[in-house]
TrEMBL record:
GO molecular function: peptidase activity
Cofactor(s) required, per the database record: Zn(2+)
EC number: 3.4.24.-
Record domain Peptidase M16 N-terminal: where: 75-218
UniProt signal peptide: 1-30
UniProt source species: Sphingobium lignivorans
Keywords per UniProt: Hydrolase, Metal-binding, Metalloprotease, Protease, Signal, Zinc
Protein name as it appears in the record: Zinc protease
Span of domain Peptidase M16 C-terminal: 232-406, 708-886
Gene3D superfamilies: Metalloenzyme, LuxS/M16 peptidase-like
Recorded family membership: Belongs to the peptidase M16 family.
Top enzyme class: hydrolase
Alphabetical list of InterPro entries matching this protein: Metalloenz_LuxS/M16 (IPR011249), Pept_M16_N (IPR011765), Pept_M16_Zn_BS (IPR001431), Peptidase_M16 (IPR050626), Peptidase_M16_C (IPR007863)
GO terms under biological process: proteolysis
Length: 988
C-alpha cells in the first residue's frame, strides 16, 4: 500500500538529508511476517492478486494476451484531462557494467522518435494537443524502472487514440538509428555534466559505501562517460529488446473520459507488441555485506558537515497485506517519536543543527534505517554521541501512552486530510501513485481505506510493541557510519570508527512530558470586530468585506475543493519597505519569524499546538507585501486565522532560531560555489536586479551582523504591526461562519498605521549593459560552464498586456533553444528562457536566457542567441510555431479557471488596487490573442543588443573564451570578456 500523503512520505525520506542521496525515490517497507492474502469467491485482479487490502473500486484492471497489464479509471479532476503513465520494469540495476546508463539512454531515444513518428515530432504533436514538454510530457529512469508520463489537458477521443499510438510505437520500435544515437548521446552527456555537483559527488560515494558489493553501489542511472561515449546503436537496440517487453510493462491511465473508450484504444495499439526471445531473469541485486568497511570519511568543501548511520538488512519481498501495512505504520510511529525528540533537542541548544531518522526500502536492495546528523560547527563527535544517546533511550525504554497518542494524532490528521480531499485528487497523482506502487511491489487503496487501515493499526501501537519495533529498526546485518567533512581532519576515519563502537548511555530528559498546549495557550485577542461594508466583487460570488478596523476580507465560499480551506493574509509593504542599499538578510525571515513563536509559546510549544491539526505557518517576503499562507480544513481554519492574527499582535522574539539559522548557513556555505548551477542559483537573481541588497544571497558575515536579537526585533517588529491587511479565504466554508472567524481574529486587532514606502524603495533596477559578459566563478569541474543573457523590459500594470505577451515570446525562445541547442546540437540539457515583470513597480522587468554547457560552446551560445534574436525581429514566427505555444497555455488557463489557488493569486492585493479584477479578466485574452506581429514588435523593441547584460560561469582558472556580442544581422569582432571588476564582489 503506497503512502499517498506527501507529508507522511516526508517521515520516510526527509531524514536522509545530505547523507544518503540515493539515485531513486525512497519508499518504506518494514519486514514483519506477511499475513496470507484473504481468499474470496471472485478472483482478484492482477494488481491485488496476493493482497487482502480493500480494492479501490474506481480502478478497472486488465491484461492483454501478450502480458501487458493496465489499469484505467475515470476521474474528472482536472476537467478534460487524461493522465497516462507507462512503466517498464527496467532501470540501471538491470544493466551490465558495459551498459551503464543504457536504460536512461533508451528513455531519451524513445522520446525522440519511433517507427511511427519522425524525430522530435511527438513533442510537437503533444504541444498541438495542449501538452507542455517537461511538465505535461516527460520520463524518468530510476535504478528499478522507467516511467513515461503524459498529461493531456484537452483529452479528446482522437487525441487519446493518437497519443496511445505514439506511445505504443515508442515502446516497441524507438528510432535507435546512428543519427539519433549520436545526437542524443550529446544530450545525455550534457545532462550528466550538469549533474556534477558537490551533492552528486557525495551521493555517489555514499551509495558505493552503503551498498558495497551490491549493484546499487555502482549503478547510477546516468551511467559513465566511457559507457555513454561507447554506446552503439546495436548495443542499445540489444538492451532495448532484452528488457522492453509487454510482460514487463504496466500502463496506468486516469482521466476525464469513458474508460471503455480508452481501453479499446489501448488494446488496439498495444496488442501487437511482441517480445523478442525468452525473458531475461532479473539480476540479483545483492544483500548488504557485513564484511564491507563499516566507516568512511568524505572530504567535500562545498557540502555541509554531516554524519550518517545506516542499519542495513536484506530486502525481502512481502505480500502487501493489511497485517503488513499495520506493522509498517507502527514502525513509522516509532521513528516519528524519535524524530520529534531530535527536533526538540536541536531547538534547545544541542550540538547538532538537525538530526532525523528514516526507514526505507532502497531500490529493492536493502531494508534500511538511516540516521542523518548535521553538526553545529565541526564537532561531529559530540553531535553523533548526543544523537545516539537519544536513539538509545528509545531502544531501552518504552514510549509513554502520551507519546504514542501524540504521534498517532499527528499522522492520523494527515491521512484524514487526504480522505477529506480525495474528491479533488488529480488524475496525474492517481496514475503516479499506481506506477509507484508497481515499482515497490505494493498496491494502492482509496484514501478512506488508507485512513481506516491506519486506525486499525492503533492496536499495535502499544509501548511494548513500539519498543520492539525500535530495537529491530536500529539493528542490522551491516551497520555503516559515514562522515562528510568540508576539510580533512587528523585521524578522522579512526575517530569515526571509535565513535561508532563506543558504548552509549541513554539520554536523560529528552522525553516530551510538557503540559498540553491548546489554543487557550495563545494570547487573548480583543473583542470581535464589526463589519463596516460587504459588497460583491462581481465574479464567482467573491465578496469584499471591510471591517471597522480597516482589515479587508476577500471571501469565496465554494465546494471546488471539498475539505480544503485556503487562507492567505497580505500585510504591510513587503520588500519595498526595505532600502535597496542595506542588506537585511531577508532570506532568513521565513524560518526565523515562524520559529520564534507567539506570545509565551516557542517553537516547541507551537509544534505541540499544531500537532494533529491542519494548521501551518507559511511566511513569505514579496515585492509589495508580506504574506502568511496555509491550506487548512473546515474544522481548523478558524484556529488557523487565530494563529496568524496573534502572530501579528503578539510576536515572540527568540534568538535561538537566529543562532540556528546562522549555524545552518555556516554548515552549508562555501565562499566559492561548487558547481555552475550553484553559482547561478546564488547570484543570478541578485545580479539581474542590479545588486539590489534586498535580493542579496545569504552570507555568513552579513548574517552575524544582521541576525542579532536586537536588530532582528528592531527590523521586524514595526513591520508586523503596521500596514494594510488583506485576508483571503477561498474554499469549503460557510460564508457567515468565515466572516465571524475573521471578525474574531483579524477584525479584532487594533487599527494599524500605514506609512507608504519612500518612492526610491519602490524602484526595481536592472544592471547596466556590458560590452562583454561578466565572469562568475565556481569551484566545480572544469567542463562545467554556463552562459546568461538578459534584456531590460518594464514593470507595473499599465502595460500588463505587453508583459503577458513577453511570456509568450519567452516560450518561443525556449522552444527554439530546445530544438537547436538540445535536440540538434546536444550542446545543453536544460536551456531556458523566462520573462520577469514586477507588477508592483514601474521598472525592473527583464527577459533572460540561461543554459549550462561546455566552456568551448559558450561562443556558440551567444552566436545562436544573436541569430534567434535577429530572426524574431526580422521575421514573424509561423502560425504553427505560435499555436504550439498558445495551446498549452490555453489548456493551462482552462484548468486554472476551476482553481481557488489561481483566483487567489489573480486577486492578490485587490482590496488596495481594484484594477486587479480587470487584469484577471484580461489575462486569457492577453495571452491567447497574441499574434506573430505582436511578438515581432516585442522582439524589435526589447531584445536590443545595446541594452543587454550577459554573464558566463566558469570554473576558476579556466581560460575565458572569446565571445561576440554582435548586432542582429551583423558580425562583429569577438572580444575577451571584461575582467571580474564589473560585477559585485560576491560573484562566486
Amino acid at each position: 500500500m503506497t503512502i499517498r500523503s506527501a507529508a507522511v512520505r516526508r517521515l520516510l525520506s526527509a531524514a536522509l538529508g545530505a547523507a544518503v542521496l540515493l539515485a531513486s525515490p525512497l519508499h518504506a517497507q518494514a519486514q514483519p511476517a506477511a499475513a496470507p492474502a484473504s481468499q474470496s469467491a471472485e478472483p482478484r485482479p492482477w494488481f491485488y492478486a496476493t493482497s487482502d487490502v480493500p480494492m479501490d473500486p474506481a480502478w478497472h484492471f486488465g491484461e492483454l494476451p501478450n502480458g501487458l497489464r493496465y489499469a484505467i479509471r475515470r476521474n474528472e479532476v482536472p476537467a478534460g484531462q487524461v493522465s497516462i503513465r507507462v512503466r517498464v520494469d527496467v532501470g540501471s540495476l538491470m544493466e551490465e557494467p558495459r551498459e551503464a546508463g543504457f536504460a536512461h539512454f533508451i528513455e531519451h531515444l524513445t522520446f525522440r522518435g519511433s517507427r511511427d513518428v519522425p524525430d522530435g515530432e511527438s513533442k510537437r504533436i503533444w504541444q498541438r494537443l495542449g501538452a507542455s514538454f517537461g511538465s505535461d510530457s516527460n520520463a524518468q529512469t530510476s535504478p528499478t524502472g522507467t516511467v513515461y508520463a503524459l498529461d493531456l489537458p484537452r483529452a479528446t477521443q482522437s487525441g487519446i487514440d493518437e497519443s496511445l499510438r505514439i506511445l505504443a510505437g515508442m515502446m516497441t520500435a524507438p528510432a535507435i538509428t546512428p543519427e539519433a544515437v549520436d545526437a542524443e548521446r550529446m544530450v545525455v552527456l550534457a545532462e550528466r555534466r550538469e549533474g556534477l555537483s558537490p551533492a552528486a559527488r557525495v551521493g555517489d560515494q555514499v551509495r558505493s559505501f552503503y551498498f558495497a558489493g551490491q549493484r546499487l553501489g555502482q549503478h547510477s542511472p546516468i551511467g559513465t562517460e566511457a559507457t555513454l561515449t561507447g554506446a552503439t546503436p546495436e548495443a542499445l537496440r540489444a538492451f532495448h529488446d532484452r528488457w522492453y517487453r509487454p510482460d514487463r510493462a504496466v500502463i496506468a491511465i486516469s482521466g476525464d473520459m469513458d474508460p471503455a473508450v480508452i481501453e479499446a484504444s489501448l488494446r488496439a495499439h498495444f496488442a501487437g507488441w511482441q517480445a523478442r526471445g525468452e525473458a531475461t531473469e532479473l539480476p540479483d541485486f545483492g544483500k548488504p555485506d557485513p564484511k564491507a568497511p563499516a566507516v568512511k570519511v568524505i572530504v567535500e568543501p562545498s557540502s555541509p558537515y554531516s554524519v550518517g548511520l545506516a542499519y542495513l538488512r536484506p530486502w525481502v519481498f512481502n505480500e502487501d497485506t493489511i497485517a503488513f501495512n499495520e506493522a509498517r505504520l507502527a514502525d513509522m510511529v516509532a521513528l516519528e517519536l524519535i524524530n520529534r525528540r531530535l527536533e526538540t533537542v536541536a531547538t534547545m541548544g544541542a550540538s547538532f543543527l538537525q538530526a532525523s531518522v528514516a526507514l526505507d526500502d532502497s531500490s529493492r536492495s536493502a531494508n534500511a534505517t538511516y540516521v542523518t546528523i548535521v553538526p553545529i560547527g565541526n564537532d561531529w563527535e559530540k553531535a553523533l554521541r548526543e544523537v545516539r544517546a537519544i536513539i538509545e533511550d528509545a531502544r531501552r525504554t518504552p514510549p509513554s501512552a502520551a507519546d504514542i497518542d501524540r504521534e498517532f494524532a499527528g499522522m492520523e490528521a494527515l491521512y484524514a486530510a487526504a480522505a477529506a480531499t480525495s474528491a479533488v485528487e488529480g488524475s496525474a497523482q492517481q496514475a503516479e501513485s499506481l506506477v509507484a506502487a508497481i515499482d515497490i511491489r505494493e498496491t494502492v487503496v482509496s484514501p478512506q481505506a488508507q485512513l481506516e487501515i491506519f486506525r486499525s493499526a492503533r492496536r499495535l501501537m502499544t509501548p511494548d510493541h513500539l519498543l520492539a519495533s525500535t530495537r529491530r529498526l536500529f539493528s542490522g546485518d551491516a551497520v555503516r557510519a559515514l562522515l562528510s567533512l568540508k576539510a580533512a581532519q587528523p585521524n578522522a576515519q579512526a575517530r569515526l570508527a571509535t565513535a561508532l563502537r563506543a558504548p552509549v548511555q541513554p539520554a536523560q530528559n529528552v522525553r516530551l512530558d510538557a503540559p498540553s498546549v491548546t489554543m487557550a495557550s495563545l494570547p487573548a485577542l480583543p473583542a470581535p470586530g464589526k463589519v463596516a461594508s460587504r459588497t460583491p466583487v462581481g465574479i464567482l460570488g467573491i465578496q469584499d468585506i471591510a471591517f471597522e478596523n480597516g482589515v479587508r476580507l476577500l471571501l469565496n465560499a465554494n465546494q471546488a475543493e471539498p475539505g480544503k480551506v485556503r487562507i492567505r493574509v497580505r500585510f504591510g509593504h513587503g520588500r519595498q519597505s526595505f532600502s535597496p542599499r542595506e542588506n537585511d538578510a531577508l532570506w532568513a525571515a521565513p524560518f526565523a519569524l515562524a520559529a520564534s513563536g507567539i506570545g509565551d509559546l516557542g517553537q516547541r510549544e507551537m509544534t505541540e499546538l499544531m500537532n494533529g491539526r491542519r494548521l501551518s505557518f507559511g511566511f513569505a517576503v514579496e515585492d509589495d507585501a508580506f504574506s502568511l499562507s496555509a491550506v487548512s480544513s473546515p474544522e481548523d481554519y478558524g484556529d488557523q486565522l487565530r494563529l496568524f492574527a496573534t502572530k501579528l499582535a503578539f510576536p515572540r522574539w527568540d534568538d535561538a532560531p537566529l543562532k540556528r539559522t546562522i549555524a545552518a548557513l555556516d554548515a552549508s556555505y562555501d565562499p566559492v560555489p561548487g558547481s555552475a548551477s550553484e553559482a547561478i542559483n546564488r547570484n543570478l537573481d541578485w545580479l539581474l536586479r542590479n545588486q539590489d541588497s534586498r535580493f542579496a544571497p545569504a552570507s555568513p558575515a552579513v548574517a552575524r551582523t544582521v541576525l542579532t536579537l536586537d536588530r532582528f526585533k528592531a527590523t521586524w517588529e514595526p513591520r508586523l504591526a503596521a500596514g494594510p491587511v488583506e485576508v483571503q479565504i477561498f474554499g469549503d466554508v460557510v460564508a457567515e461562519d468565515a466572516i465571524a472567524a475573521v471578525a474574531a481574529t483579524f477584525g479584532a486587532l487594533e487599527r494599524r498605521t500605514d506609512t507608504p514606502p519612500p518612492a526610491e524603495y519602490r524602484v526595481m533596477g536592472f544592471p547596466r549593459p556590458v560590452s562583454s559578459p561578466i565572469l562568475i566563478s565556481h569551484d566545480g569541474p572544469g567542463e562545467q560552464a554556463a552562459a546568461i543573457i538578459a534584456w531590460p523590459t518594464g514593470g507595473g500594470v499599465d502595460r500588463i498586456r505587453e508583459s503577458r505577451q513577453l511570456d509568450m515570446l519567452a516560450r518561443i525562445i525556449n522552444d527554439r533553444l530546445f530544438e537547436k541547442l538540445r535536440s540538434i546540437d546536444g550542446a545543453a540539457y536544460t536551456p531556458s528562457a523566462s520573462s520577469v515583470w514586477p507588477e508592483s513597480a514601474d521598472s525592473g522587468g527583464f527577459l533572460f536566457v540561461q543554459t549550462q554547457l561546455k566552456p568551448d560552446r559558450i561562443p556558440y551560445f551567444f552566436e545562436l542567441m544573436n541569430e534567434i534574436v535577429a530572426d524574431l525581429a526580422n521575421n514573424p514566427v509561423t502560425q504553427d510555431e505560435l499555436d504550439r505555444q498558445v495551446e498549452p497555455v490555453r489548456q493551462l488557463l482552462n484548468r486554472a479557471a476551476y482553481s481557488n489557488a489561481f483566483w487567489m493569486s489573480q486577486l492578490d492585493g485587490y482590496t488596495s488596487d481594484r484594477r486587479k479584477l480587470a487584469l484577471a479578466a484580461s489575462l486569457s485574452r492577453d495571452l491567447l490573442d497574441v499574434t506573430p506581429a505582436d511578438l515581432q514588435q516585442l522582439a524589435t523593441r526589447y531584445l536590443v543588443p545595446e541594452t543587454s547584460w550577459s554573464a558566463i560561469v566558469l570554473a576558476r582558472g579556466m581560460p575565458v573564451p572569446l565571445v561576440s556580442k554582435a548586432m542582429p544581422g551583423e558580425a562583429k569582432a569577438a572580444s575577451a570578456p571584461a575582467p571580474a571588476t564589473e560585477p559585485a564582489p560576491a560573484t562566486h
